[in-house]
From TrEMBL:
Domain Saccharopine dehydrogenase NADP binding: 11-141
Encoding gene (name): PLEST007770
Family to which the UniProt record says this protein belongs: Belongs to the saccharopine dehydrogenase family.
Keyword Transmembrane: yes
Residue numbers spanned by region Disordered: 422-441
PANTHER family: SACCHAROPINE DEHYDROGENASE-LIKE OXIDOREDUCTASE (PTHR12286:SF5)
Protein name, UniProt field: Saccharopine dehydrogenase NADP binding domain-containing protein
Lineage, highest ranks first: Eukaryota, Viridiplantae, Chlorophyta, core chlorophytes, Chlorophyceae
The keyword Transmembrane helix appears for this protein: yes
Keyword field: Membrane, Transmembrane, Transmembrane helix
InterPro entries: NAD(P)-bd_dom_sf, Saccharopine_DH-like_oxidrdct, Sacchrp_dh_NADP-bd
Length: 441
């Protein structure tokens, strides 16, 4: 495997003047400045200088941080920035519009890369275009390194590894149920979502919605897992109902991508591993209301007149929740793993944070992912479970090392208990009709 040679900067934040990019820089200014070599990069030097000036109030030494500039579509200019870094952390979306050249140059220059995209058609194209070349060079290109999809990806990885290492068995199913949460919405996230609806073909969007192995199949994995869909679903081990979760269509595909990549390294999650993600609702009525809300959001996003109307009342690109909202936010996912044993055991866990998921948590997740790639490279290379290079998922590239970094940064990722071998059947027996509905019968 190739080793990234020492370069002027360990970390370059690409899109540092954007809403999330600024937050990544804020984390560095507060917690890592002086401990890593880093620079801010983007298109507009005046905006970058303004962000640097504002961050110097947190840490006066930040006023000396270098600024690098390039247009995202100017390959030579992007290359001149990227080749100075050991890892590029990209927050400049929509990624289908602004990300192609940055990823291509990262691979060409032998630079690790991580971003916060949730645009899975673009991720699929990235795998098709760059996986082989990145793998040959030992370069790691990591997509979906924010709230989409680190909690889902690392949460499932944690549950499976516990079952394999502590219980000695694989996992047939992991459930991730979104619990209480509070957060804001930025214009950049909305622009990425609208860009996806406008520019991707109907057939591509249909494939995203119908194929749980949309990404995993590119790495050779197929199975019987199905997307959660919009209907309420009964969760047997919980003995309760769940409604659809907005980002399940992204997160579940990343989880199965990790399964595919780890299967190729002989660390499969299970013989026919399945993953479900939804919003915990307790009863059927609550789950139904969540389904109705999701359907309404889909109609608004799909129909141009309603989409245009929504844009008038929603944040514009560069805008997002204020500091009070970010620091007052929180999120939690409850995790349930069902083992492959007969009868199965049920393992419970959780992950979460005491800050806003989409921005404070996302920016910190991206940063810790990048730091794992450069500061913990020897540990990553020594772990036979992890991929050495290519277009990868966070878990397949960084696994236990990233879990450690996230916990040290204040995130919760923990296994909370194991229930008896009959527990996996108890919930299904309590409501066989609902269990059949959950299985799609």
């Amino acid at each position: 495997m190739a080793t990234i040679a020492p370069r002027p900067y360990q970390v370059v934040v690409w899109g540092a003047s954007g809403f999330t990019g600024r937050l990544v820089c804020e984390h560095i200014a507060r917690d890592y400045h002086g401990k890593i070599r880093w620079a801010m990069a983007g298109r507009d030097p005046r905006k970058l200088e303004q962000v640097r000036s504002e961050l110097s109030r947190i840490n006066p030494a930040v006023k000396e941080v270098p600024i690098l500039t390039a247009d995202a579509n100017d390959a030579p200019a992007v290359g001149s920035v990227v080749r100075q870094a050991e890892v590029v952390l990209s927050t400049a979306g929509p990624f289908a519009r602004y990300g192609d050249t940055v990823v291509a140059q990262a691979v060409e220059q032998g630079t690790h890369y991580a971003d916060i995209t949730g645009e899975v058609p673009w991720v699929r194209r990235s795998i098709q275009r760059h996986h082989s070349a990145a793998a040959a060079k030992g370069v790691k290109v990591l997509h979906c390194c924010g709230y989409d999809s680190v909690p889902s990806d690392l949460g499932a990885y944690m549950m499976v590894e516990h079952c394999k290492e502590k219980l000695g068995c694989g996992v047939s199913q992991v459930y991730s149920l979104t619990g209480p949460s509070r957060g804001g919405l930025s214009g950049g996230t909305l622009e990425s979502a609208f860009n996806l609806m406008i520019n991707e073909s109907a057939s591509e969007l249909a494939a995203v919605g119908s194929d749980q192995y949309y990404l995993a199949a590119l790495h050779g994995l197929r199975g019987s897992d199905k997307p959660a869909g919009l209907l309420p679903r009964y969760v047997p081990p919980l003995g309760g109902w769940a409604g659809p979760f907005l980002m399940e269509g992204v997160n579940a595909k990343v989880v199965q991508e990790s399964n595919a990549l780890l299967t190729s390294a002989s660390y499969s999650y299970g013989k026919d591993f399945k993953y479900f993600e939804g919003v915990a609702a307790g009863g059927l009525v609550g789950a139904g209301l969540i389904s109705a809300s999701m359907a309404l959001m889909g109609v608004v996003a799909w129909m141009p007149p309603l989409r245009a109307l929504a844009r008038r009342f929603l944040p514009a690109p560069g805008q997002g929740p204020n500091e009070e909202m970010r620091k007052g936010g929180y999120w939690r996912h409850d995790l349930i793993a069902v083992t492959e044993e007969e009868p199965p055991r049920v393992v419970k866990g959780r992950c979460g944070d005491r800050r806003d998921p989409g921005y404070w948590s996302t920016s910190r997740m991206l940063l810790e992912t990048g730091l794992a790639l450069v500061l913990d490279a020897p540990r990553l290379a020594a772990d036979p479970r992890l991929a050495r290079g290519g277009v990868l998922s966070p878990a397949a590239a960084c696994g236990p090392v990233l879990l450690e970094r996230l916990r040290a940064a204040g995130f919760t990722f923990e296994v909370t208990g194991v229930e008896g071998q009959e527990a996996g059947k108890a919930g299904a027996a309590a409501d066989p009709v609902a269990a059949g509905t959950a299985a799609g019968k």
